[in-house]
Amino acid sequence: MRGLGVSLALPWLESFSVWGDEPAKGKSSSAPVRLAVLFAGNGFHGKEWWARGEGRGLELGKVLQPLEPFKDKLLFIRGLYNAEAGKGGIHSAQTGNLLTGSPLEGGGGIRSGVSLDQLLARKVGQETKVPSLVLGCEPSISALHKGYSMIYSSHISWSSPTTPTPLELYPALAFDRLFRDDVGKGDASVLDLVLEEAHGLRKQISHTDRGKLDEYLSSVREVEQRIQQAGQQGRLQGWRPTLDKPNLPRPADGMPQDIDQHMRLMCDILVLAFQTDTTRLCTLKLNNDHSSQRFPHLGVDYMIHHLLSHTDNADWLKVNQFFTQQVAYIAAKLDKIQEGERTALDNTMLLYTSSMLHGGSHNCSQLPVVLVGRGGGQIQTGRTLDYLGKANRRMCSLYLAMMDRMGVRLNEFGDSRERLAEV
């Protein structure tokens, strides 16, 4: 649907043939496979990141308990690693090649490789309005740590070996990128601008699709309103100001100050992007490795994220669960979106990972890896896979298998020439 300066992509509707194929008689056309990568820095609780069993008997450790409703659509993978990540320092050297598997340049230089999401964007991104979304909830860091640039700590998406893909930190700008063709049109509601065409569309679609359309438009309106309200509660992160009232004029709205609102808005934007097929690729960096985030909404504001990761205490577990809740929130919203015989979650690969297993030990000899969603019905979920001690346990082997599910088959990627056959 189009209005003055905006275009609003539609969700899957049974009334129309979509994604370029003609539906078979009596059947709807198939939705595409999407990939989202959610990153949480500094690893997870040393004793509570685990899963065991399979099917209905699958058990999840406390870090992953927010994903309990989706354990039948979850794949827990143990023992994968990036060989190059263990050759340098900690944090930066463990993060910069997470999605590339490439050697990193030290000494303040910047060189990694093309990341999983951006390689796919080159292959399938031309089929959508936005080739890929690269979202973040914490600004980049410009410094050195253990001989490596902290640009590596701040970015997992790389457009070229020397170019980290810019993070979009502002929910309003990410929203505009999805729906506005001319961002200079001002703050008029996207829905208000396409309302006339939406009314016309309702006359052409089935009763079921009208319900889907109304639900979708309500979701867009809700995100618009929450973007406008973000940060008004004033639960500022980190350092507390010495003034209780500003002594300068109020600046224009920017990045939300409340981390829970910020993350939730970015999660909603990711879901909208997939629901409308505006993009099929998204990375959401919930924080940096070596992060300075604080969590006053959890009652945990006495210590930054990075230092909390060294404690392995109850507050660290609480923060871990808060991050996992963002994954569960996305999974729940996608699972409510019906796309023919499957849900949007069934058509998605939602990868949740970090640059190390445990923050206290900085252990990157194995990485935390959970895959939620069924990749268009191509992934058998409700399982755990253990690659410890096996010859092929490279993260890039997982990436090769995931790219296969999106119709991109390569002979090699990063440091791997062999896909994980069990995925």
Query: What structural class do helix, strand and pairing data support?
Result: alpha/beta
How far is it from the N-terminal to the C-terminal residue, by CA?
Answer: 38 Å
Secondary-structure element string: EEEEEEHHEEEHEEHHHHEHHEEEEEH
**Topology, number of strands:** 17
Describe the sheet with the most strands: 7 strands, mixed
Number of helices: 10
Give the strand order, joined by hyphens, for the main sheet. 7-12-3-15-16-6-17
Helix content: 25-40%
Mean pLDDT: 86
Runs in which pLDDT lies below 50 for 5 or more consecutive residues are: 22-28, 236-248
**Rounded to an integer, what's the Rg over CA atoms?**
21 Å
The global form is globular
| Strand residue content | 5-15%
How do the strands and helices of this protein lay out in sequence?
Elements: E1 2-3, E2 6-7, E3 34-39, E4 51-52, E5 59-60, E6 74-78, H1 92-95, H2 116-124, E7 133-136, E8 144-145, E9 148-149, H3 151-154, E10 158-160, E11 163-164, H4 171-179, H5 190-202, H6 207-229, H7 259-275, E12 281-285, H8 305-308, H9 314-335, E13 338-339, E14 342-343, E15 348-353, E16 369-372, E17 383-386, H10 395-405
Parallel strand pairs: 3-12, 3-15, 6-17, 7-12
Antiparallel strand pairs: 1-2, 4-5, 6-16, 8-9, 10-11, 13-14, 15-16
Helix pairs in contact: 4-7, 6-7, 7-9
Short description:
With 423 residues, the protein is an alpha/beta fold. 27% of the residues lie in helices and 13% in strands. Helix 4 packs parallel to helix 7 and helix 6 (207-229) runs antiparallel to helix 7.
